[in-house]
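Margin note from the TA: students keep mixing up input and output lines. Inputs are the sequences; the output is the structure of the whole complex. Example:
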Amino acid sequence: MATDNQDTSNLDSFKRRWEPRIERFRRSWDRFTEHKMGVIGLVILVVYAVWSIIPGVFAPHSLEWVAYLGEPPHNARLTGEQIRSLPHPPAFGDPFFAPLGTNQAGEGILTLVVHSASTAMYIGLAAGLLSSLVGVPLGLISGFYGDTWIDETIQRIVDVMYGLPFLPFLIVLVAVRGINTTNIIIGIAVTSWLNNCIVIRGETLSLRERSFVESAKVAGASDTRIMFRHIMPSVLPLSFVYLASDAAGAVIAQASLAYLGLADFTADSWGIMLQNIQAEGYVFDAWWWLIPPGLAITLLATAFYFVGFSMEDVTNPQRDS
Amino acid sequence: MTRISGTYLAKRIVVSYLTLLVIMSLLFVLLRSMPGSFIQGMITPGMTAEQIERIRQEWGLNEPLWKQYINFMVNYQTGNFGRSPTQNTEVWSLIVRRMPRTIVLFGSVFIVGFVIGPLVGMYLGWWRGSTKDKGIFSSSLFVYSMPAFWISWLFIWVFNYELDWLPSAFMFTQYPEFEWTAFTIMRDVLYHMALPMLSLTFIGWVGSMLVMRPTMNNVTDEGYVFLARAKGLSERTVMIKHAARNALIPVVTGAIVSLAFLIDGSVIVEQVFSWPGMGALIISAVLSRDFPTAQAAFFMIAVLVVVMRLLTDVVYTYLDPRIKFGENN
């Protein structure tokens, strides 16, 4: 059991340990907020995050809502005339309220867009994280043992992966493992760690010549310790940049796969909405259905890029002329 | 003047070749692990077991896996890609017909993108942090984030559907009395190429800009830029003649990355515009389980990428005298 005395001393040591880090974080945050770009990106991400956690609050209807009939239980069927009026352009008031119109099936576009945010956020973050988890350690190892057989092996693996075109390879991968969101994420991660690995390797190659690595070596630190305790903190910010752009790439890749008919049709997503508009043949007749999902994808990917590139500025302060 | 040693070059070529062999093996495993078999389309319900057996025999599916693998590796290196089960022609002739179409479209996108991208990147990197930079940079990232097929749809919607200026599908005008002379063919292809090219370049140039901008920013601190300024040269001359030339070097290697991007773009955009190129071939082959064709198409892309990677390393040494390969080996 901890006594009061121990508690305060723990707190003190906690403070002592964390204060410089908090201070550093605050300084980075100030630099980050200097850029409007990063802040805009963060705001978009927060909005999407909130949408994915509590979509019900922001969507005008539930997912079961149907134009003309409203929320379930439906005790009527759509008449022929009503079916012919679908997809319906944006309409307010009676007989229904659909701020962005409806699709062929009578579902509200805005409702679908809001409810789809979670899939996109999940795919983006999971694929970005996974590819960083593979790319960063491999890049570190490859760079640290630069010009040895270890580096050579890892770089040849990268070469092999580069030789396989991203999207067709992904299609085969998804076809082999079955089409569901998890496999799509794994497929994207498998093909997108390459840039991560190459950049981290280059950074490590230059870092390992620095004096602090030299002194750690003299002090008898093991290779693993040098790599992960001394070099990694310096390359981590850079890897966040690549995490963000991998996440953006993943969101776009998922939409492209959905367009080709390779997406999990049980999960609502913007890619599926675009696939549907094509399948139903309304691409050029229903702008209210065409524009929102594509714009949602674009904004999410933009937000990831914005945050990533602002991070780059934070970690690599350049002369502002 | 040769900065690249012969032994290094020989070693790189051997390694590239081995890389290709590994890619081929990977392709063999991957495509065979896909569910379904490419002869399924040829088997009709009324067939007897014997007939099915004969088809399997004909396509070499009864041989042990290792033998199929050896055959595949040997055949590919002698240029024998086999027959396509769905198209019923030689795969090689399919690829020979498709490859130039993709090269025409994506070659031009590549070239135009590589003029615009580095130029914009040069200006943005030189005046990094200015309002101009912030505005153009963030809007280019926005453009870069658009799904390729979606932006193609928007372009088709505006330029074909609403304005009816440009055709949105195929490579040639499809009417019988078309006069097939070299000039009309060229004009016709260019006319059909305009819209897909516009959609692809709209997104595609950003890739090389993203590489150019930071490298351009890095060279602004170099001594030779100071020297050029001190000589009283105009800002414009310093930027273009002294800084940009050196900042361009990483962009050349970056070309490989954007080449991969173009191949991905080709898959989607060729589908949208019914452009009869390699991307469309790959997708239809994979989706219809036409493994011989898919394999060959993958193989051709792999060869292209491996050769280009080798080339960039060689070109690199000529562009930057400071880089020397094969010194410490």
